[in-house]
Design brief:
The complex is a heterotetramer, with 2 copies of chain A (about 400 residues) and 2 copies of chain B (about 350 residues). Chain A contains 15 helices and 16 strands. In chain A, the strands form 5 sheets. Chain A has a 5-stranded mixed beta sheet with strand order 8-9-10-15-16. In chain A, strands 2-4-7-6 form a 4-stranded antiparallel beta sheet, with no helix packed on it. In chain A, strands 1-3 form a two-stranded antiparallel ribbon. In chain A, strand 6 and strand 7 form a beta hairpin. In chain A, helix 2 runs antiparallel to helix 3 and helix 4 packs antiparallel against helix 5. Chain A is globular and about 85 Å long. Chain A starts with 12 loop residues before the first helix and ends with a helix. Chain B is α+β, with helices and mostly antiparallel strands. Chain B has 3 domains: about 90 residues, 2-Layer Sandwich (Alpha-Beta Plaits); about 150 residues, 2-Layer Sandwich (Sulfite Reductase Hemoprotein, domain 1); about 45 residues, 2-Layer Sandwich (Alpha-Beta Plaits). In chain B, the strands form 4 sheets. Chain B has a 5-stranded antiparallel beta sheet with strand order 1-2-3-6-5, with helices on one face. A 4-stranded mixed beta sheet of chain B has the order 7-8-13-14, covered by helices on one side. Chain B has a two-stranded antiparallel sheet with strand order 9-12. The longest helix of chain B is centred in the C-terminal third of the chain and has 17 residues. The chains are: A alpha+beta (about 400), B alpha+beta (about 350). Chains in contact: A-B, A-C, A-D, B-C, B-D, C-D. Chains A and D meet through helix 2, helix 3, strand 1, strand 5 and helix 4 of A and strand 1, strand 4, helix 2, strand 5 and helix 4 of D. Bound molecules: siroheme (SRM) (4 copies) and iron/sulfur cluster (SF4) (8 copies).
Chain lengths: ~400, ~350, ~400, ~350
């Protein structure tokens, strides 16, 4: 520790290198706040981090820190080398659920910052990859009080461990013309509905939901969440013919052909003289043409959500992308929301009862097989769920199946 | 048997050069291009300017010395004493004269051998041994083949499909008939019943039977005090692999062995990579001697493809373009849960995207 | 059995249905030959087959029948219901290797037919799916003599069981302008070289090779053989500009655009006024453009073979397609052929020593992993082997790998 | 601690409606289209005709109360008292006046926050906790992130890429950073060393550590008479999953934990389906504080893509078009055996065709 001046940093020759360069430097930021507040936890953290840069090893270990009544929301960190750097002996993170879409008013945010400066290090992570507002660096002693204070102001903790996790939403209808459902509201209501499971780990493993307003999937939901809610539409793409004509005029025919017509994944778009025609039956709702011509094209009016299940990270099986399970569900009315909640309850309950420890729902489905899953969930198999029918003969359909029923009905 | 006087010569396959029409010997490796003057006839032109015509005809595939001798007669008369078979069991006669082509066509047709199978036609179905010879078949592939070829006969003798159509049929799930644009394959619908008597009689090596099961569903057990096998029914996937290893694992059944239809197999590398075929209909009755239900489904699929496919588009490529939903719509077939893969690489076939057609 | 007339068939009401219809009827054929020869084995076989049609069950079982010195080549069949149909009590198949490409002279073929009529049923299968000329229906007593007679005439048995199997070749350079190597010769020489392994089962399981002159793969080699030899070329597609111009004239621009330019899988073909240009670096040797314009385009002059390994049928893992292992190998000279033989020896020996019982080479590679396989075989990994690099992080490269070596060399 | 007087309200996420600029509340769900007046600035027009501008700026991501308060100041001054963050940790200010846009840009730039990340630019890198906070990291993702963003800064503030470029970096193989066009991820290059002392001290649940291993390489054993674990080295795939379950399974090492580069991840459904990223470089040294080797490879990849990609073509789509061979040629990277998959679904990545480029 530096002698004399309590606002004096210790040498951090490695970290200092990260103050250079045009991109904003977190090291600069940390030092600034330390210099203003003299919060020694920051100095300790910088010292330990610099030591990590020298030795190329990490020195935090976990433990159990929580708030009254909750089992999750705090990531506890104890230094393994507190003999060297006692100032950051404890350095827990408080995960706070922000408003869906990461929208803030400055007054609400300032309240939070002030409390954080009072109880914690003053370091803030905006945001964690799951979507939490992460307050980094607090000692156990302060955790409960800090929580009580922010909870009074309307903030709640997020998930960690084997529970429903904090969700992420794209900006959604708040500002995006592509949004096909009110993902902010669905996020808000579902996470509130699942509060108990957010705060009290009682599941085989984590569950993440992410809410993207459209198939551009600006929250990376399909890849990063067990349940990806992707906005979509069932009717035809809306065409503003005046704006379409404007595009033809301003961008030119070549541009439209090379960037729209030839880029549709299913060739659903054809050039028809000086305009384009969309065969909506062939359209797979990929968003591309709408992205290129946002003034002229927009999602249809019969909007809802596609739900993909089973996305997750690398662990054990390599990256898993979510797979289409519910091609279309409405989320307009309170009744719709109840249906959605019921459906989610069924998914979660079924998984929770049958999964192994540390088995995400994607892995679970892979283990028990899609047939078992669909049957147990009482879901109908549809072609939307697959890229193509099976290509191996190992299935057990049973001998009472009548493949000709439909054909005969159609004929009869 | 008298004492053997002949010492085997392990000669391997005979030399093909002695089996070729002189024009083919002369121009071996020096062909320049080909044309199709009419369905069932090819015309290959060599760099030398030489020309060889090929007349292709459908056969019984399960042939006889009489049938083959008649082909030999025709080959002698019109094709210099040479002939060949295609990988799809069609017979081919090569000649450098157009008159011979006409003679061959006339005589072959008179003998009941359809001329065709070239270009964008439906060629002869690849099939397997079935009840005629194999020890594990649940149907008669030859009969299914004949029944289907009767139906598609007109598509064999014309060239009106978007691209070549390859059919196959197999009499057990092993599928000796191979991948095809449309394949008709036996499908078992329940686990094998174990013939303990047979096992006790020692007709099977028990450990290798256990090892044959892809899902480890077979376990050693004791029945009537003697070693035998049992099947864990929940695990068993009705594949019938054990039956190939051991006749006591009785998988076949007159009613419970069904037929399934697969589409979109592709072996060529033209345009798209080779592709496995996909299940589109299962549980069809095993209904000899004519299997009308199978024929009906094959006809529906061919009709839809003929109508919708673009030039050079193979069955699977056509479906990829229009999407599986429309394939099922246009053929009238019904998608169901069992068509969703649940085997080892199942996840790869899931729709891991928000792409969806409404 | 029918009374009185030994040339009289028993009733086969089911099979008779298969005499109808325009396609040649194998039942008609069988009956014809029975009526001429009176070979009761045919009648027995028809009776049993008709019974199978009635009961929907098969009634053959295997056994062990062979010829002196060989362990393979005969598929033995005994009737399980010889009490009902004694005439086809034994009904073995003799698998004979035809000339590559299934080419015949009538004199060689007639010799064979005559001997078959003498010793066997007179029923012939032209050909089996692996490429054997199958002589169906002979009793054990006659097998050795029949074999000796045909062997004198230059015919040899094919494979069956755990051995190298009879191969298949397309018509090849004998008649096809697409053939990029002399597949008939390579087939002939390799199978002769492997004769011992064809005749004496001593491998973990079967090995099939198939020889297609070009990537059209008219033998279905990639799908149906452990080793698929596919002709290919390394230099540029040859263009006959006069013929190309003729196509433009006769077929029209639209046809060329819609059927050639837009159908190349890598967009290697561009329209350039009234002709096309091929970017041969982008060409993946798919054959399509050559197929559509055979007069104008043909494979380049630097020709050879691509070898794909691991194709096989459904059993255990679902259909496996062969995977590219040797992108290019020459097969022009005797030296080339020796190299090819040595390489095949290495493949076969390595697999034979390490595979489990009943494990095809594709399954074997899947079990031990491609890294082990390449290392043990001393083969270099190339991008031709994959559609794309790995997408999961579970590999063990070791820490002595230097990824920057090549970059630095290039720079230095 | 004093007695608690507050009863927790499980309020969940706050209501977003109270967090929105009035123009956004008014036009909620009624936006019509957007434009990008300049890099870093969006203009959304509502059906009502209302307009809202967005100014997007890069941040430290590991922020402080001071940094955020400055953003609040700017939001109060120019954006009605509202602001938001993007999923990539950029901050966004919304305003209905163009003057405010200009003011914001000026002040943000003065504070060192680059304006950009919109449209076809390289946006801010998604990264993870690293040595600053996580208990299992082998590097410091924040440092790698800062070092890379310094290099690509010019591509953040301009829109000159073929399409959006998303970067990520993760400090262990678990990859909390996610799939990206280019990802930099820790890669372990040897099995964990087992700290038996730690295991004896009871810091881990042994059975759940055993269960965590994807390849069943961990076995219970006894060391010094006490229960511990062992690793079967031939089986171990160096994934480090066990370390997450048990700190005694020491996978990290200053020299043997390396960095690997992955490309072509795609999350959107635009045109092509979402895709996993692929390994293109591994064994890069873990070289703080600036990781120059990593930066060099990232630069090469970006340069090649910028040069060769077509409009709207994402990194992976570009590579699919030109082929992986050319990707390696154009970036100067070297393909090797380890880039061939040998895990569970490896076969699916093999070239199961005769398609080959020479
Ligand atoms: C004779 C035969 C080879 C042999 O040695 O027996 C053969 C001969 C020719 N094939 Fe083939 N193919 C033959 C079986 C195959 C097979 C395998 C099969 O039938 O099981 C395939 C792969 C099928 C698949 O993908 O599932 C095959 C895929 C092709 C293709 C690629 C078609 C495509 O677009 O996918 C071509 C190219 C073309 O059509 O121009 C082709 C082209 C040709 C050409 C035009 C080559 C040439 O220039 O001479 C030959 C005349 C074809 C015709 O019928 O119009 N041949 N061809 C086979 C005839 C089978 C039959 O009797 O019907
Ligand atoms: C005769 C033939 C069908 C036909 O009518 O053409 C045939 C018939 C049999 N096949 Fe086959 N297979 C025949 C070509 C094939 C093919 C196609 C090919 O070779 O191109 C395949 C797919 C390719 C492959 O090898 O995987 C094929 C895949 C199998 C398999 C599954 C192998 C696998 O690993 O998936 C078996 C089962 C086994 O070997 O245990 C099998 C087994 C059998 C057995 C030996 C059944 C048994 O295990 O007892 C059949 C003997 C029937 C008989 O009584 O003659 N047969 N079999 C074909 C061989 C004729 C010939 O030699 O020319
Ligand atoms: C602000 C943000 C959502 C949010 O709630 O935070 C957002 C906002 C918009 N995205 Fe996005 N996307 C945002 C993250 C993403 C992500 C996820 C990510 O960055 O990790 C993706 C998926 C990335 C992937 O595929 O790996 C994403 C894929 C897209 C796409 C599809 C691009 C493509 O062709 O693949 C579009 C369509 C487009 O570019 O027109 C899009 C379009 C848009 C539009 C134009 C939508 C609109 O009409 O308003 C927004 C302005 C974009 C701009 O920057 O020009 N957005 N967008 C995110 C900004 C991130 C950032 O700071 O850089
Ligand atoms: C903080 C955060 C990284 C960041 O800097 O943003 C993070 C940090 C950790 N992640 Fe993560 N993950 C974070 C987002 C993710 C994401 C991205 C997402 O949620 O969108 C993923 C990929 C998606 C997924 O869930 O699969 C992710 C996949 C994992 C996994 C692997 C899960 C899997 O099944 O593949 C683990 C390991 C585990 O859970 O056992 C893990 C575990 C961890 C742990 C708890 C390490 C551990 O096991 O002790 C890390 C705690 C670090 C710390 O000290 O704060 N983290 N983790 C992110 C959470 C912040 C937040 O709540 O907002
Ligand atoms: S996911 Fe769709 S609705 Fe949401 S921000 Fe992106 S483009 Fe807009
Ligand atoms: S949204 Fe996508 S699939 Fe639909 S028409 Fe537009 S580009 Fe084609
Ligand atoms: S498909 Fe099955 S039943 Fe038919 S010949 Fe082959 S192994 Fe025998
Ligand atoms: S049928 Fe297949 S899965 Fe069932 S016991 Fe036999 S080998 Fe095993
Ligand atoms: S594989 Fe190629 S060379 Fe052989 S017949 Fe077919 S087109 Fe000709
Ligand atoms: S052979 Fe195939 S890949 Fe090559 S240029 Fe022709 S169409 Fe394209
Ligand atoms: S990537 Fe690994 S080390 Fe980094 S934060 Fe996530 S779990 Fe921790
Ligand atoms: S590093 Fe991975 S593979 Fe190795 S022992 Fe640990 S969990 Fe198992």
């Amino acid at each position: 520790m530096a002698d004399g001046n309590e606002f004096q940093l210790n040498p951090t020759s490695k970290l200092d290198e990260l103050e250079k360069g045009p991109w904003p430097s977190f090291i600069k930021g940390f030092k600034e706040t330390f210099r203003r507040t003299g919060n020694t936890m920051i100095r300790g953290a910088l010292d330990q981090l610099n030591y990590s840069y020298e030795t190329k090893m990490g020195y935090w270990k976990g433990g159990v820190v929580g708030v009254h009544g909750y089992g999750a929301g705090i990531i506890s960190r104890y230094s393994m080398i507190s003999d060297l750097f006692p100032e950051a002996k404890e350095f827990h993170t408080v995960r706070i659920q922000p408003a869906p879409g990461l929208h803030y008013s400055t007054d609400k945010l300032r309240e939070l910052l002030d409390l954080w400066e009072k109880y914690g290090s003053g370091l803030v992570n905006m945001h964690g990859q799951s979507g939490n507002l992460q307050m980094i660096g607090i000692s156990q002693d302060n955790v409960q009080e800090f929580f009580d204070e922010i909870n009074k102001k309307g903030w709640d903790l997020g998930g960690a461990g084997a529970c429903v996790r904090t969700s992420a939403s794209c900006v959604g209808p708040a500002r995006c013309e592509m949004a096909c459902y009110d993902n902010l509201k669905v996020h808000h209501d579902l996470l509130t509905y699942f509060s108990d499971l957010v705060h009290r780990p009682q599941l085989p493993y984590k569950i993440k939901m992410k809410f993207s307003g459209c198939p551009n999937d600006c929250t990376n939901a399909i890849q990063r969440s067990d349940f990806a809610y992707i906005g979509t539409w069932r009717d035809d793409i809306k065409v503003d013919t005046t704006e379409l004509a404007n595009y033809f005029e301003s961008k030119g025919l070549d541009y439209i052909v090379n960037n729209v017509v030839t880029r549709c994944p299913t060739n659903a778009i054809t050039l028809a003289g000086n305009t384009i025609e969309i065969n909506n039956k062939e359209c797979v709702r990929c968003m591309h043409c709408i992205n290129v011509l946002p003034k002229a094209l927009s999602p249809g009016d019969d909007r809802g959500i596609s739900i993909l299940v089973g996305g997750k990270g690398h662990l054990k099986v390599g990256n898993m992308l979510g797979a289409m399970m519910v091609p279309f569900i409405k989320a307009d009315t309170e009744e719709d929301m109840e249906k959605l909640q019921d459906m989610m309850d069924e998914f979660v309950d079924y998984w929770a009862e049958n999964a192994l420890d540390h088995e995400r729902i994607g892995e679970f489905i892979e283990r028990i097989g899609m047939h078992q899953f669909l049957e147990d969930m009482g879901m109908e198999a549809t072609l939307d769920m697959v890229s193509h029918p099976r290509d191996n003969p190992y299935f057990k359909a049973g001998h009472d199946h009548d493949p000709l029923k439909n054909i005969q009905q159609a004929a009869g | 048997m008298a004492k053997r006087e002949w010492d085997t010569i392990e000669s391997g396959p005979p030399d093909h050069m002695q089996m070729l029409h002189p024009v083919m010997v002369k121009n071996y490796g020096k062909w320049k291009y080909h044309e199709r003057p009419r369905p069932g006839v090819l015309k290959h032109t060599a760099e030398s300017g030489d020309v060889i015509y090929t007349v292709r005809a459908g056969t019984e595939r399960q042939d006889t010395v009489d049938i083959i001798r008649r082909f030999c007669d025709l080959a002698d008369k019109y094709a210099g004493g040479y002939l060949r078979w295609t990988v799809r069991n069609n017979v081919e006669f090569m000649t450098d004269s157009w008159e011979s082509v006409e003679g061959l066509i006339k005589e072959l047709e008179a003998l009941g051998h359809p001329i065709g199978g070239t270009g964008p036609s439906v060629s002869a179905i690849a099939h397997t041994q079935g009840w005629l010879h194999c020890d594990i078949p649940a149907t008669d592939a030859s009969g299914v083949a004949k029944s289907i070829m009767d139906i598609v006969h007109d598509e064999f003798i014309s060239e009106e499909m978007p691209n070549r159509v390859k059919l196959s049929t197999s009499c057990c799930e092993i599928n000796c008939g191979g991948q095809a644009d449309i394949a008709v394959i036996i499908q078992h619908t329940r686990p094998p019943r174990i013939n303990h008597e047979a096992l006790h009689a020692g007709i099977c090596e028990l450990p290798s039977t256990v090892a044959r099961c892809p899902v480890a569903a077979i376990r050693p057990t004791t029945v009537d005090g003697k070693p035998s096998l049992m099947v864990v029914e929940e695990k068993c996937i009705y594949c019938g692999a054990c039956f190939g290893a051991c006749p006591g694992m009785e998988i076949n059944h007159p009613d419970y062995s069904k037929l399934a239809i697969w589409v979109g197999g592709k072996n060529s590398n033209a345009r798209t990579k080779p592709a496995n075929m996909k299940l589109v209909c299962h549980g069809l009755p095993n209904n000899p001697p004519r299997w009308p239900e199978v024929g009906d489904v094959v006809k529906r699929i061919l009709a839809a493809y003929k109508e919708g496919g673009r030039d050079w588009e193979r069955m699977g490529e056509w479906i990829d373009r229009i999407g599986w939903k429309r394939f099922f719509e246009e053929t009238g077939l019904t998608f169901d849960m069992y068509m969703i893969d649940n085997y080892r690489h199942a996840r790869q076939s899931f729709n891991q995207s928000a792409h969806v057609r409404f």
